[in-house]
Amino acid sequence: MTTTTIKTMILAVAVVLFAHTITNACTGIKIKTKDGKTVHGRTLEFGVEVSTSLVAIPKDYQFVGKTDNGDGLKYKTKYSMTGIITFTDINVADGMNSAGLSCGAFYFPTIAEYTPLTKKNQSKALSPLDFNNWVLAQFATVNEAKKAIENDEVVIVPTVLDGWGETAPPFHYVVYDKSGNSIVVEPIGGKLVVFDNPIGVMTNSPSFDWHMTNLRNYTNLKTENANSMTIEGVTFKQLGQGSGMNGIPGDFTPPSRFVRATAFSVTALPTETTFDAIKDVFHILNNFDIPKGFSREVVKGEIFADYTQLTCARDPHTLKYYYKTYNDQTLKEFNLNLFDANSKNILILNTASEQTVDNVNKKLKNMK
Asked: 304-338 burial by CB neighbour count: b if 16+ within 10 A, else e?
């Protein structure tokens, strides 16, 4: 047995154990430039090392939806697309197409309930990871995708996927288009439910409408400092900046991250360019970084520590896709405009890399 095979088996066992304990803690946001353009991004957390790769997929590439009972929906890509895949399955878990439409899968534990597979619906069936791929391959706008979903053109069926354990992984999805429109798609009660997402924020369970209702608990938050108060002639002033946000939840549960992500994204000062906005996306998402060890579960004496393995951002106006990893904080960029959309081949690059350090000793000058 080869070393690679042994490592693969160990990872598979870890994922099976992990799938029943900690869930990943992904966070997504959207921000605007001064002229109203939007960019967006997200984090990807998991408790075991998950292999991720950047891919570029051309137009007219044939895909077949996967089910536990054979082929599902067959479709071709109308648009070229790029993004991140997990393990070896060529299905984009997070990405963007050449029309500027973006889509991302987020963990949705205890809530996700897919449509049962039947002979009648198999021809339009998709696995939980196929759904993103289908959206990016077929549509240019949120409204197009929303209409197709509400017309029951596809179903997501419970499907066991390589690397994701012995049961179907629970996902829900966020979709953004170039105009800034956004929706959330959730498999609830065996049906796909679509919610408009005007603020562009996304986390995990519970359902999106619950998170939106929960924001009403935080209407007291504001960017300006709290006013001083006077009691019995004694004036009490705030101790420093940020008192207007006193009470914002700071833990890493999905409800708390949703509130915090909303506060960070809606208060971000609009930038001049989309690249400036991309930089702000990364700065904001840095606040959701989970270092190894902070969030953990112990299973049979083994520690599984949830941590931020990858952070990405998407610019639908320049068609540039950016990412950085836990081990390499240098921003990587892929320009979909420079990819030959009519090629017959998928391009792939594993995201694993090591951080380099820019030594500045020789850049210092004598002070005059």
From this structure: bbbbbbbbbbbbbbbbbbbbbbbeeeeeeebebee
Residue 53 CB partners (closer than 8 Å, separation 6+): 84, 85, 348, 349, 350, 351
Distance of CA 19 to the CA centre of its chain: 18
Q: What is the pLDDT of residues 28-65, one digit of tens each?
A: 999 999 999 999 999 999 888 899 999 999 999 999 99
pLDDT tens column, 69-94: 999 999 999 999 999 999 989 999 99
CA dist 76 and 177 (Å) reads: 20
pTM greater than 0.90 (yes/no)? yes
Match domain 3-205+252-353 to its CATH number in 2.60.40.3550, 3.40.50.1240, 3.60.60.10, 3.40.50.300: 3.60.60.10
Quickly tell me which residue has 């101790």 as its tokens.
239
Structure tokens at 74: 């067959």
Kindly provide the residue ranges of all beta strands, DSSP E only, lying in 151-292, ordered along the sequence.
155-156, 171-176, 182-188, 191-196, 229-231, 234-236
| Whole-number Å distance between alpha carbons of 211 and 202 | 9
Do 72 and 65 touch, CB atoms closer than 8 A?
yes
In single-letter form, the type of residue at position 198 comes to P
CA 130 to chain centre: 15
The rounded distance, in Å, linking the Cα atoms of 339 and 235 is: 63
Listed in sequence order, the residues at least 6 apart from 303 whose beta carbon sits closer than 8 Å to its beta carbon are 296, 297
- Taking Cα atoms as reference points, which of 281, 283, 292, 285 lies closest to residue 326? 292
